[in-house]
C-alpha cells in the first residue's frame, strides 16, 4: 500500500489532482465553521441530542449542522435534485431523449439539476428556519429570510466545489464532500467511546465487540458493493465485406446492489418526515402521538424501515434496469445467452436473475440500515453512524481507489488491486 501511494505521488498529473482535491476538502472543512448569523447554537445542539434525523444530518454535514454554519444543509438538496431528475428521465419522454443525446444532452440535464438544487435548497432552508424558530435570536421575517438565503448559498457553493473537484481533482466531488463530512466525525466518536469507558457507562468487552462488528460489516459492505452475477453471452460471427466480426464470448455483469444507497435514503426520508413535522409542534397532542408512534427505538419502526428499504430497492432497480433493452441490443448485434433464444426468452431470464440477486441486495441494505439499533442494544454504546453513512464511505473509497488505480495502470505502475 505504501509503495502504491509512493508511485501515485511520483506522477505529476496525479499528484496535482490529489493535491487539488485535498485543498478543496480543506476549504469545505473551513466553511463548516462559518456560522449563519442570528442563531443560538446551543439550542441546535440540544435538538440534535434529542432527534435521530437531526443527528443524521449532522453526521452527513460533518458537524456543520451542529455549528449551524452556511454548510448546515450539506449537499442534500443536490442529491435530492439528482434523484428527482433521474426518476423524471425515465418518466418524461423529453428528458429521456435528452439523456440519449450524448454529452450535450447530459450537460443540459446537469443544468436542470443545478436549478433544482437551488430551488429545493431554498425550500428546505425555509422549512429549517421555520422549524428551528426557537433557535433564532431575533425572530422575524427578515431573520428567517437571511438564514434561508445563507443556507441556500452554502449549498450552492458546495455544489460548485464538488463539480470543481470532479473536473480538476480525483474522484466524484459531491461524493467526496459527503465522505469528508462523515469521516470527520469519526475522531469525535472515538473520544465519546473513551469517555463512556472512563466513566463506566460501558465496558471494554462491549467496545471490542463493537470493533469486531465494525470490521465484519465493512468487509460485508465491500463484498456486496463489488459482488456481481455474470451472465455468459456469446456473439455469432458476422462477415461484413472481407472482414469477420463477432465470435467472442463475454458476459453481462449484474450487480448485487444495483440501487446503491438510494433505497435507504428514500425509506429514511419517508419515515422521518412525520416525526420532523411533529417536532415543530411540541405542545400539540396529535404531534406528541405521532412522535411516539414514529420512535426509531421501537421494534415495529425498525421492521417497517427494513420493509420499505426492500420495496424501494426493487422499485429503483425496476426503473433503472430494463432487461428488454439489454435483450434487444444483444439480438441487434448477434449476441445470445447459450441455451436461450434471443428476444423475449432472454429478457425473461435476465429479469429472473436480476430479481433473485436484488432480493439479496435488498436484505443486505435493510440489515445495514437497522444495524445501529442492534449495536446500541448489544453494546450499550450510543452509535449513530448509520448504515447510509457507512455505505457512502465504503462506496466513495472504492470508487476513488479505482480512479487512482486506472491512472497507475495507464503508466504501468502496480495498483491497489492485484
Looking at CATH, the homologous superfamily of the largest domain is SecY subunit domain
Sheet with the most strands: spatial strand order: 4-1-5
CATH topology of the largest domain: Preprotein translocase SecY subunit
Distance between the termini: 11 Å
- Sequence of secondary-structure elements: HHHHHHHHHHHHEEEEHHHHEHH
Keywords: Cell membrane, Membrane, Protein transport, Translocation, Transmembrane, Transmembrane helix, Transport
InterPro entries: SecY, SecY/SEC61-alpha, SecY_CS, SecY_dom_sf
Organism: Thermanaerosceptrum fracticalcis
Protein name: Protein translocase subunit SecY
Please provide a written account of the structure.
It holds the Pfam family SecY. It is a single chain. The relative contact order is 0.11. The protein has helices at residues 2-10, 12-31, 41-50, 52-60, 64-67, 76-91, 93-99, 103-131, 141-168, 173-183, 186-199, 204-226, 262-279, 285-293, 299-320, 323-332, 344-379, 387-410; strands at residues 228-235, 238-240, 243-245, 249-255, 335-336. α12 packs antiparallel against α17, α13 (262-279) packs across α15 (299-320) and α16 packs across α17. The mean pLDDT is 78. The chain is mainly alpha-helical and 418 residues long. It contains 18 helices and five strands. The strands form two sheets. It has a three-stranded antiparallel β-sheet. The chain has a two-stranded antiparallel sheet with strand order 2-3.
